[in-house]
Amino acid sequence: MAELPRIVITGLGLTSPNGNSLAEYRQNLLAGKSGVRAWSIRHVGETLAGVCDYDALRWQKKKELRRGTRAGSIGIYCAGEALKDAGLDLTRLDRSRLGVYVGTTEHGNVETENQIHEVAQYAFDLSFWSHHHNPRTVANNPAGEISLAFGITGPAYCIGAACAAGNLGMIHAAQMLQLGEIDQALGGGVSESIHTFGIFASFRAQGALASHADPAKASRPFDKARNGIVVSEGGCLYALERLEDAEKRGARIYGELVGWKVNSDAADFVLPLSERQNECMRGALAKARMAPDEIDLVSSHATATPMGDQQECEAMRSVFGDSARTHVNNTKSFIGHTMGAAGALELAGNLPSFEDGYAHPTINVDELDPACEVRNLVLNQPKRLGRVDTILNLSFGMLGINSAVVVRRFTP
Fold first, then answer.
1. Are 38 and 65 part of one and the same domain?
2. Residue that terminates a domain, selected from 248, 275, 306
3. How confident is the model at residue 1 (pLDDT cuts 50, 70, 90)?
């Protein structure tokens, strides 16, 4: 059986609550700078959120911005930045061979809530209902808006995978490249979650919405006093290619996707299951042909919910045991939970470790929960690891979906 083509990352574009480029984002992660702030939203009132502040008109016009969605706008920004970063000139590409695979948690809630609110001001006279509603709320919207903005005629669609969606966008892109269906791909995830009151209300009803007097300290995975999720928006899309194609054009390579796994708990709507998470990690390692002690850095999913963090830590202890080499960190402590974008953004925060040798920390851990004790958990200050060759990126989601991606330092 012939070896499958190797898949590499040649570019990325992102917007996060604490940075709109990889350099800015990484600098703030190493500096311990949070992007969580006070936020007010209809029907919920004052709360906390991770809010992005990017140039929405960098890659689209005002008319397109008004007609489209927040998720589409985030996706367009990330796509434009990724293509530019990768040096992919669309005027010289076969755009029918470029695929767009955008992971999303949910889509359309924002527009539906806004439209209902608007017609409510007019006694529910539906003549005030926008004719843009349907294209804004269809499940393929963010990817479709990207295809429209850049004239991409290849496959462009969304992958619904709850909070594992960012990883699945990358995985699906890699698989389509290996199958030869496309020649270049944009894969990752986006989230517009902070603009829908429903998600805040639901997490609050569940007792899982974070609160803290200091917004910057609200997201506190692994801390004994953690009290829930900080809802955030954001996005990250990667330019992915087959290695032979990237080398032919002399592209810079950030890293190589060498393993992945997706599985399901089949146990509960919201509660995670460490046994299945364990199997997911081991499956990704097996595909990468690696042993657990060959992983340098684990980018954890931990959302700062009591049960979620404990279950994940139990799974990591089981997989990695007392590995002296493997370190663990968390990015949500800086930016909150970016839902469908989480996996992609969290990997981006760690990719520069291949160059600078540092693991950014998990911040806001004043007292580590004993149930979250994991060897080499990097807390509150960056840690110099020396050489980082391998990253395991974890993302889990509601209805029991689990994902793991292994990225390796590129070696010819």
1. yes
2. 248
3. low
Answer yes or no: do 164 and 52 share one domain: yes
Q: Is pTM beyond 0.85 here?
A: yes
Per-residue pLDDT reduced to its tens digit, 61-103: 999 999 999 999 999 999 999 999 999 999 999 999 999 999 9
- Domain, as residue range, for 363: 260-406
Place of tokens 């146990």: 267
277 touches 261 (CB < 8 A): no
Could you give the number of structural domains in the chain?
A: 2
Q: How far apart are CA 273 and CA 350, in angstroms?
A: 25
d(CA 36, CA 228): 14
CA distance 224 to 197: 28
What's the pLDDT at 248?
97
Residue 17 main-chain phi, psi, to 5 deg: -65, -15
Q: pLDDT tens across 128-147, in order?
A: 999 999 999 999 999 999 99
Q: Rounded distance, CA 390 to CA 279, Å?
A: 19
Residues 6 or more apart in contact with residue 310 via CB below 8 angstroms: 369, 371, 372
